[in-house]
Fold this sequence. Notes:
With about 700 residues, the chain is α+β, with helices and mostly antiparallel strands. About 40% of the residues lie in helices and about 10% in strands. The chain has 22 helices and 16 strands. Helix 17 crosses helix 18 and helix 18 packs across helix 19.
Amino acid sequence: MARKDGGPDRNEQAGGKKPRRSFLGGLFYWTAVLAVWGLIFAVVFFAVFARDLPDTSSLYEVDRQPSITYLDRSGALIAVRGTQMAPPVDLDALPDYVPAAFIAIEDRRFYHHPGFDPIGMSRAMALNLKAGRVVQGGSTITQQLAKNLFLTPDQNMKRKVQELMLAVWLEMKFTKKEILALYLNRVYFGAGAYGIEAASQRYFDKSADKLTVGEAALLAGLLKAPSRYSPVSESKRAATRANVVLNEMVETGAITPAQREAAVAEPVRVSRTLASQHAQYFIDWLDKQIRGLVGEPTEDMVVETTLDLTLQTDAERAVRRILDRDKGRGVEQAALVALDGEGRVRAMIGGGSYADSQFNRAVDARRQAGSAWKPFVYLAAVEAGYTPATPVVDQPLTIGGWSPRNYSGNFAGQMTLAQAVAQSTNTVAAYVADQVGRDAVARAARRLGVTSEIGLQPSMALGAVEVSPLEMAQAYDAFANGGKRVEAYGISRIRTPSGRVIYSHGAGENGQAINNPSLYYMNQMLRGVITSGSGRSAAIGGRDIAGKTGTTSDYKDAWFVGYTGGFVAAVWVGKDDNKAMRGVTGGSSPAAIWRGFMEAALPKLAVQPIPNGPPLPEGWVAPDPVGDMMGQVQDPYAQPQEGDPNAPPIVDGEPVPAPKPLPNDQPVVRPTSPQPSPKDAPRSEKKPEAVFF
């Protein structure tokens, strides 16, 4: 349309296009467009991520594995395995500094955010980018609660978004106080404890409302990594972390600097039962047995055990002291098993540190027994007619091309069997085993409780048999209890917390494994090991003690197994890599551990002298005391006298061993001078070397 003045219309000049919008009109238009698309994106986004959100109706349900509580023989708590829950604690019942400790270290802005903290997330992101790794998390307490209640620990974008959504939902549904209470009652504190009440009971043997400032700081510090900051296995690291929490509490005003100093000055004492970490080897041993006895646990159980925590503590101290003392000689690991006369395990040490290694050397390790094996040789001998007074000859010997040598490197000539036992003479043990039959030796060991494979090669007589400390204690128990075979056990009863009995150990009779006079002879000779033989360092004044040392070639294993009336303990020391120690014998480190343990334990036990066992044969007359057979009883701590032709050289306070024997499978070669043997000790037929019992 033309203008009146004949010029073109403005719309025609623009080619028919609409006029431009004003700035405000454009801003309104594009804001509306973005809002619509943002809404569409948000709906799609939340539809995708909320599609498989968990059911929040499970908020108050607890999905956990049944717990197993282990008690010692007097009812004291040893350990709790599985999930431990406690009744929810009322937040108002806690001292103010307890929840404040968690807020200070986990979420300072807890009372000022809507479930997620953009400021905290930004700060954490900046610190992580600067460090090039994750050094700080940005999750709030509400987010952590959402994750613990509803989500898996997977680290991915979808889970993080769901965590934010659930955190906002929790903030809309609950008050801050309710969220904090839920968090403290459900978070995991390590050691199987969920919730602050269970954690307080587990670590400090007290209810949460009695926590001190230092204890609250320690528990708050645990949450970052419960195993890494455990006050049991990582005490120094836990203390450092607790100090960080205390500093944060001062900065947030939860406590005063004076309260912080008081908390630092007051030691935090962890529960004695948890601090006794070596008892965990015993619990591991039982844990494997429980499912075989009662099946997979479907409810909480209480296991009443045979362990005596006071004796366990004595054992731990004895082992730790000698490991520290003799580490310069290459003593790296130790194991100890103590049984009473019925086979009940009263103490068990499976290694130097449970925190460093959970491998139970008392049960699962198989190491050569050395001369600690010889009592089975001599038991077979006395059952075949030998007596402590039987004359034998210590002289060169070759059996199947194998020539055993004595520890001293010398040969003492004629002696009694009792002297050969006391001095642990290798040639006599090898000769006697060959005479009575190594199969008879194997049967004697098996009858007493050795369960490992037993080869019949000639070196078996000197302990070339791999056994566990538990087996050795079990087998020696027959010498201590009157000749009865026992099977070591650690579970007396399994019941529910309400008292319903699920399993009870039977009180079946132990069969007679050693009869008399064989038992009488063996106890006499093994007493001689302590009074005048290789085990003199284990002697305890006023106690009826017997036992046997054991040392393997190249000092790879050292043993002492000793007993008194109705109580036996087996001790092994060595290295896990089977490398040699520096001159460590059964009469040194193992005997020192055994003596240290027994000196502390025996006054707490109603032990009697070693029993004689079943009635002796009618008309049988006991021989002269074993001390008379072996000559003058020696001072247990006397060193070999200079000039003694049979005394081995001394290096670092220990005798130097003979060279390592070189066994092979050649025909038997007899000594040039026949050794005397009893007429009623028949020679058994030889068995193939590959035979195992």
